[in-house]
Amino acid sequence: MHLGQVMDTTLHRSLTISQISRLIFSSRIISSIDIGMAAGEGKLSAEANLSSDTTMSTKDYLDPPPTPLLDAGELGKWSLYRATIAEFTATLLFVYVAVATVIGHKRQTDAEACSGTGVLGIAWAFGGMIAVLVYCTAGISGGHINPAVTFGLLLARKVSLPRAFLYMAAQCLGAICGAAMVRAVHGAHHYALYGGGANEVAPGYSKAGALLAEAAGTFVLVYTVFSATDPKRMARDSHVPVLAPLLIGFAVLMAHLATIPVTGTGINPARSLGAAVVYNGKKAWADQWIFWVGPLAGATVAMAYHQYVLRNCAAKHSFGSNHHDVQA
């Protein structure tokens, strides 16, 4: 090929790229004007339709349809039971590490005090373990590790009722086993001496205040879960799925820093139940209802806020027509 031919070919390609660039630029401009003005000319009309389709594809994003409330077919799938086992194991590990950290911190008051972690360390233990376990189990079970999270997702039609029931049962059983492991490691004497890591309303605080604190802390957690796993955001921003476990862990950490002085921080009914069962203290059982009502109420409000306030489109269609039945 002669040099002149090469230059002509290069120039032709440059013009083609330039034309394409102008086409893209013009289509963006047309999206901001009245498309009806372009209807008279075929070329402009085609560009206007292209821009309109692009705009509508973003505006009319549809989330996956709601999960059936009762999915009998799901009970015959191994994936459900594998996910349930994952929830049991994750909750066991979470409660073991977290409650063991609480017991270790309280032993600082002994004459031979260990170099305990302190309140900040306890918050990091809870938040850090949640971040790690959500990362490990998200692809298997969704990484709930908390009946309040499962309850919120059930209300949002993201999980079926049978799955939610199995998850909650597995979480509670895992929490009991995790607390029992702490008792076995530290011994019955020290475990009972330091309250078994059980949640109780601290002296000087009312039950109403404790209930509000638990609801608020759980709201922070569940709201973060919904935001970090929002399918629309995940489709738009590729970094969101990667950061989700870290963000959820930080939500747990912050909730603990705010709530430890009031209740020792539950925000997880399974964690509170597991410690209460193994410790079996009178006050722990007397206050147990707070660590169920508060978190479940907080999860409900967080779900409603995200679904029906922030994601208003979902509010209009979740229980509407079959053609637009979506979830946020």
Automatic annotation (TrEMBL):
It is found in: Cell membrane. It comes from Triticum turgidum subsp. durum (Durum wheat). It is a multi-pass membrane protein. This is Aquaporin. It comes from the Eukaryota. The lineage of its organism: Eukaryota, Viridiplantae, Streptophyta, Embryophyta, Tracheophyta. One of its GO terms (cellular component) is plasma membrane. Keywords: Cell membrane, Membrane, Repeat, Transmembrane, Transmembrane helix, Transport. SUPFAM superfamilies: Aquaporin-like (SSF81338).
